[in-house]
Amino acid sequence: MEKNNFKETIIVTGGAGFIGSNFLNLMVPRYKNNLFVNIDCLTYAGDLKNITVSGKENYKFEKTDIRDKDRLEKIFKKYKPTGIIHFAAESHVDFSISNPKIFIETNIIGTHNILELAKKYQVKRFHQISTDEVYGSLEDDKGEFYEYSQISPNNPYSASKAGAEMLVRAYNKTFGINTVVTRCSNNYGPNQDTSKLIPKFLTNAMKKIKLPIYANGKNVRDWIYVNDHAEAINLVFRKGKNGEVYNVGGNCKLTNIDVTEQIIEITGNSKELITYVTDRPGHDFCYALNCSKIKKELGWKPKVSFKEGLIKTMKFYKKNLSKN
Q1: Confidence band of 321 (pLDDT split at 50, 70, 90)
Q2: What average pLDDT does this structure show over 231-253?
Q3: Which of 120, 246, 295, 323 has a CA-to-CA distance to 168 between 20 and 30 Å?
Q4: Mean pLDDT for the stretch of residues 217-230
């Protein structure tokens, strides 16, 4: 066990990834009396360059795959965590269609490994970072998903995240682990892998490369700037009710073609860059979340408008392109 004088020790899985790194970059400087231990196996989506707080005394990094329970246990023994924020997951829908197995192994078995250790080492709070995709698809853009809505995942990625959630629920109900779950809508912002829609289209547009849109581009997503999500995670982790699920959305429903046209506008391009491609299997039509619960109980609401966030994101990727 590593001795320290910190009030809390929080393990953050997947902290070198998109959302996890933004969370750490915000919270490590804010909570100087908390030790943050970043566990990441550094796949294509994880990069230590995403971490701007690596020199802080209250930040540690451990390169580990959450599928490796023995290695995970050594970390638990070393740090004796009081809390866990579990970001680590395979999250690319297209990849889950071509290789579902890795999603089952990481998102379900990996989550089970961490829950087992959370139980063994009596962790005081376990926060599962989930997704609105566990709900499945809305039939039109008028509806909303509530926390009590039926879970109906439609692709291997969302099914694996739903499975992980059910394990978290079971460990809460059966073993008494203190848990919270947040289901968030589509994130965008700095550090996101360029295989995802917004960073891919931003970098393509800045290079004058075609923007491939599935089907007719009418699929709808609710977008949230990543720092707004990070603030919601922090609030739920610290003040959310034991055993509860909280929706976290940006209150910003846009079709894929809407998003693409805004990217074209801010990058100074023409719509001639748009090209339509064959739709992917199991492509959900619409996600939209009702977030009245987190707003009412915890006072959270998104602060960054889509246009403001998109401009911030474009500046990040423009700077990265200039380095290459």
Answers
A1: confident
A2: 97
A3: 295
A4: 94
Task: State the burial class of residue 278 (Cβ atoms within 10 Å of its Cβ: 0-12, 13-18, 19+).
Answer: exposed
222 is catalytic: no
Task: List the catalytic residue out of 79, 157, 246, 287.
Answer: 157
Residue type, 108: I
**SS3 of residue 289 by DSSP:** strand
Per-residue pLDDT band for 257 (boundaries 50, 70, 90) equals very high
**242-255 mean pLDDT:** 96
List 40, 90, 133, 165, catalytic entry: 133
Backbone conformation region of residue 131, classed left if phi is above 0, alpha if psi is from -120 to 50, else beta: beta
Measured CA to CA in angstroms, residue 16 lies from 37, 40, 93, 125, 266 at distances of: 11, 6, 20, 21, 28
pLDDT recorded at residue 3: 58
As a whole-number percent, the residues of the chain with pLDDT over 70 amount to 98
- Check if the beta carbon of residue 52 is closer than 8 Å to that of residue 44: no
Q: Give dist(CA 199, CA 211) in Å, integer.
A: 11
Q: In the annotation, is 133 catalytic?
A: yes
Pick the range with the lowest mean pLDDT from 2-6, 53-57, 110-114, 291-295: 2-6
| Selected catalytic residue, list 65, 132, 144, 222 | 132
- Judge contact between 46 and 14, C-beta under 8 A: yes
One-letter amino acid for residue 20 of the chain: G
Beta strands (DSSP E) in 88-139 are 125-131
105 is catalytic: no
User: Which domains, ranges and CATH numbers included, belong to the chain?
Assistant: 8-188+224-251+288-304 (3.40.50.720), 197-219+253-287+311-323 (3.90.25.10)
**Mean pLDDT score of the chain:** 94
